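Schema walk-through. Below, the input block comes first and the output block second. Nothing else is stored per chain. Lengths vary across the set, and this one has 231 residues.
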Amino acid sequence: MEIIPVIDLKGGQAVHAKLGLRDQYRPLRTPLCPDGDPFTYVTALLSLFPFRTIYVADLNALMGKGSNLDLIQQMIMSFGQTEFWVDQGLDMLTHQDTDQQTWIAVLGSESLPESGLETLLPGKESNVLSLDFSEHGILGPEQIIENEYLWPERTIIMSLACVGGPSGPDWNRLDSFRRNWPQRDFFAAGGVRDAKDLGRLSSSGFAGALVATALHRGDITAPLIARFMTD
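--- output ---
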C-alpha cells in the first residue's frame, strides 16, 4: 500500500488543512515545516522517507482565488525524482501537452462541470480522479458516482470533513466503495491517523492512503511507512 504525503498550498505557503474549512487554513508550524515554506516541507518529507509520490492541492485555484502554478512548477523541477499529483481544478490539464516534468493531474469532482464528463474523463488514464465528499455527500456532479466507466484506474475517495480531524476516516463510505467496486484501485484521503488506520486500509485492499496531519504529529513514522510500503 502506497502512503502519499499531502501538501496544501495557499498564498504561496504550505498550510494546515483541517475539516475542509479552507478559509481558516493557516501556514504550517510543525517540526516538518516550521515556517510554512513548501520547499522546506518537501525536503523534510523526503528526508523522512523516500516517497515516490507527493500530492499537492492548490487551494487558491480550487477556491477561484488565483493559483500557485509557478510555485508548483518550481517544486516539480526542484524535486525531479518525485512524482507529484497536482489538484488545481481543471487548470492543470492545459499544461499536459507542454510540460514534460513528472506530474499527474488530479481531477477533483468538486471542480468538474455538470455536463461534458464523457469528454473530460475517458482517455485520461494517466490522471487521477478524486471523488470529493462533504458530510452531506458528493461534491460535484452526482452522475459521476453512477457511471463507473468514467473513472480512471486510480481513484481517491476524499472525505473533506475528516481532514485533519480526530475522528478518523469515514469508514462507512470507504467500506462501501471497497464492497461495491472491489476491483478498483482506491486511495483513501481524510482523517488517516495512525498505524491502526493504515492497517485497516491495507487489509481492506486499498491501494494507498493520503496523509498529512499524522506526519506532522509524528503518529505516522518512517519505520511505519516502510512497513506498509514494502509489505
